[in-house]
Amino acid sequence: MTAHHAPPPARGLSAARSSAPGPTGTGPLATAAWARVAAARHGLGDARVRHGLSAAVVVADLDVPAFLAGAARFALDLPSATADGWYRTFSRTVFLAGRPATLAARHPYRHATPTAGLAWYGPARRGELHSLSRLLRTFEAPAPIDVPDGPTALTVHGPPSGRTVDAVLATGGVSTAAYLVHAHHLIAEAALRGLVRPGDTLRLAHRPDLHPDDFPDALDPSRAGSVQTRIAPSHTDPARLRLYGVLTSDRREGDH
Fold first, then answer.
1. What is the dihedral of CA 72, 78, 80, 84, to 10 degrees?
2. Structure pTM?
């Protein structure tokens, strides 16, 4: 999939910022969303961290498995203070349309996929990414996300760990641009928490919808230490929370 370059209504970091969940109401989704907000505010440790960090992903050609593996590797390669600071901003990330190879001289990336179709920058304070965001346009792809048929297994970079992590993502009514936001939150935050580690096999599935009743264990507060969820307001009904992603691991947070 090639990145879209249609002019957006606004440029820059604020135009495409992925945001923290906005839990409202009651029920298991609201409870789980509030738990994630509290965890992010608490952070990953007690050491001094860098605050106010954002990351950027430049998209030229989108390959979903490469994108998810890249998100995990990017998060895993971060120094602990940077990782913690980014986690406390809810892994805030912007997605920009461009070609990383043509930007490399002026804007070196931290990580890129093997074909350089995707590249990650930061995390850094917003001002440090302004020149990149001013140069490129927000990645816009309103069409439904095109995902692999059937279950997909991919390996996170590193020596084989012998461990498997399961993730499922919703696709029904989800645009390509929105999928990037939800999937990146899910995979990156799981890696930051230690639920995904180098060499793990990530077993990925997609469904049109993820109904909370189908994931009672994942939404159980007692399982929070080994589960990552992505819960956010529905794109079609912002007053309603929707479950966009679930990742389960046989590790617990902090198990490195």
1. -60
2. 0.88
